[in-house]
Write a structure and sequence with these properties.
The protein is built from 2 helices and 2 strands, in the order H-H-E-E. With 75 residues, the chain is of the alpha+beta class. It has one domain. The radius of gyration is 15 Å and the shape is globular. The two termini are 29 Å apart. Residues 5-21 have low confidence and may be disordered.
């Protein structure tokens, strides 16, 4: 049981590290910056991490395999 838990914990940590440092397609990130700037991003009710961290951490953005696949995403 301990071995299964250790493997599972390691997999979760690896996925989280990958998501934290994942690179996003340049065109995707530029399109999101344009969206933010053209729709009053500074006035949005929730703009957590927008323009300040990795795109995968921006509120409402879902990134998979380096591509933005959803906007307005909520877990």
């Amino acid at each position: 049981m301990k071995k299964i838990f250790t493997c599972l914990a390691s997999a979760i940590i690896c996925v989280n590290i990958h998501n934290l440092f994942a690179q996003v397609n340049v065109q995707d990130s530029l399109a999101l910056v344009d969206l933010y700037n053209s729709t009053g991003g500074p006035n949005w009710a929730n703009q957590d991490n927008w323009l300040a961290g990795p795109v995968s951490t921006w509120y409402g953005i879902l990134v998979t395999e380096g591509r933005v696949i959803a906007i307005g995403y909520r877990e």
